Structure formats: C-alpha cells, structure tokens
Amino acid sequence: MILCLGLAADPTFTAGLRAFRRAGLDFRPVDLPSLAMRGSVRIPLDSPADTVLSIGDDRHRVGDFSAVWCRLVEVASAAPSPELAAASAGQTEALARILEFVPGRVMNPPLREASGFTKVLHSVALGEVGGWQVPETCLTSDPAEALDFVRGCRAGAIFKGASATKTWATVFEPHHESRLPRLVGLPVLFQERVIGPDVRVHVVGDRSFGELIDSPVLDYRTVRGINDYRPLEPPPEIAEGCARLTAHCGVPLLGVDFKIDRATGEWFFLEANSMPCFEGYDERAGGAISRAIADWLGAQS
C-alpha cells in the first residue's frame, strides 16, 4: 500500500493519483490542508514507523505502508488564520523530517536534495555528478562585476533569481544596465545565453523520458500554444548521467533541464528539480512518466 501526501488542488498530485488507480495500486491519499485544519500528526520519537496521521475517523500509520509518494507543497502562507498557518508549517516540517526515517521507499524525501537552495552550487555540484558542462555563470551583488560579466558574453546574457524560489529567466538588454545598482540589496544570477532548444528529462530511478522544446521566447514556461514539443530519447551520456544523479541525490524522481546550443549541438545542464510538475510532459508522453512512477512505488524493496 502507498501513502500519498500532497494537495488535492495540485494538478500534479491528482495526476499521480489517477495514474496509480490505472495501475491498480492500493493507495491512501492525505490532503495536507485538510490535515492542518482538522487532523493531527503523532510522532513517537523512539519509533518513526509508528507515526500516525489522523483526519476524522481515518488513521494512517506510516509503518503500514510499503512506499510513500510526497509532494509537500508549502501552504501555510495561504492559511486563513495564524493558528492554522502554524499548524500547517509545523506538520510540513515534521513530515519532511520523519520521511528520512520511515522503513518504506519514499518518492521524494523533501530534505534529501538541498543544493537547489542556491542555484550556483546546485548547477556546479550536480553538473559534475552528471558529467555535464554548465553555462558560464556569475552570481553577484556587485553592479560593476555584473556589467563586466554581461559584456563578456558573446551570445548575450540572461539573468534570474538565485534561490530555490521559482523564478523566470530574462534576457539582459541595454535598458537593464540602469537597474544594476539594485543588486546591492539582492544578489542575482547571470548566465551566458545558450541559443537553442530546451530539453526536459524526467528521470525515474534509472529510466529517462526526454522532451525537446522549441519556443519563440526565452522561458518556454511563460507562454502557451506556441511552443513546439517533440519526444527525444536522451543520448546515452545524458541518460547515464541522469541515473547517476538520482542515485547521488538519493531521490528517485528528478526533472532535469538542459539547453542545446543550436550552432554546435553541445548540451548544457541548467538544473534538476526534485519536485517537478510532470503532468503536462506526461500527457504528451502518453503517460510513460506516471507509469514509471507507479512502477517504482509499487515495486518490492
């Protein structure tokens, strides 16, 4: 039996539950806002497997499950009262910690891959594991250093936030120079622009599912209806590097992003998301990604 922790309002979570049902898996979903509003988490410190999640008459002992699928999305900031915000934040942190010690398989332990909290460390550290090159990068709060870096980028530069918070990539243009003094209050990540298509590779254990995305805009996630999506079998060195990455990070599911230089054919690693929103990619792949997730969760340890 599989314990599923997430949000009923999260399309990725509900897409996963539908895939588990199609696969004939026995699972129990727990909606995290409902748990905060009318439930409880009981954790015996000397026996993590005896942790019990209760909502009304439903009680779920973590040790009774062979696997856990979790998408611990932060919802405390949207709570209608300080008391519920505190309950939600506390339960989320407690679950993240307890999932490091439960006996069954976990997809994905929230605290396992922490390099994403700073994107430079993330790209350099994980790129080395995969054996991939990364774009020339500068993380700085110094306006002069940023301008010097940008002017040295032959194909131009892009910039984006440097933390784990979701951010959009933007092309650096001449009018942005006047805003560089703002960097003293908040460091920004600058990268040499790689002109060419994006590739998203979803990795489930050692299985890879690739998609090539050609878009008329820099960040394909910001537009709909105009991108060109095509299935792509990752080259062996990419697929093997992705498998090494899941093993290294200790998380079986990753969404790995690359850029391909259109002029040279070179691949550049951007980042790896340990809680990817995979449902759109999965739909275009005919459900292959969610079937692989169901296979992993349903396999005997």
What features would you describe in this structure?
The strands form 4 sheets. A 5-stranded antiparallel β-sheet has the order 14-13-12-15-16. Strands 2-1-6-7 form a 4-stranded parallel β-sheet. With 301 residues, the chain is α+β, with helices and mostly antiparallel strands. The protein contains 8 helices and 16 strands. The two termini are 13 Å apart. Strand 15 (253-260) and strand 16 form a beta hairpin. Helix 1 (11-22) crosses helix 8 and helix 2 (32-38) packs across helix 3. The chain is globular and about 60 Å long. Helices cover 29% and strands 26% of the residues.
Determine the fraction of residues in helical runs and give it as a percent range.
25-40%
Rg, rounded, reads: 21 Å
Task: Note the main sheet.
Answer: 5 strands, antiparallel
List low-pLDDT spans: none
Please tell me the overall pLDDT.
Answer: 90
Q: Which structural class should the secondary elements be placed in?
A: alpha+beta
SSE topology string: EHEHEEEEHEHEHEEEEEEHEEHH
Based on DSSP secondary structure assignment, what is the total number of beta strands?
Answer: 16
Give the N-to-C terminal Cα separation. 13 Å
Quote the beta fraction.
25-35%
Number of helices: 8
Globally, the shape reads globular
Name the strands of the widest sheet in spatial order.
14-13-12-15-16
What would a concise description of this structure say?
The protein is built from 8 helices and 16 strands. It is α+β, with helices and mostly antiparallel strands and 301 residues long. Strands 14-13-12-15-16 form a 5-stranded antiparallel beta sheet. Strands 2-1-6-7 form a 4-stranded parallel beta sheet. A 4-stranded antiparallel beta sheet has the order 8-11-9-10, with helices on one face.
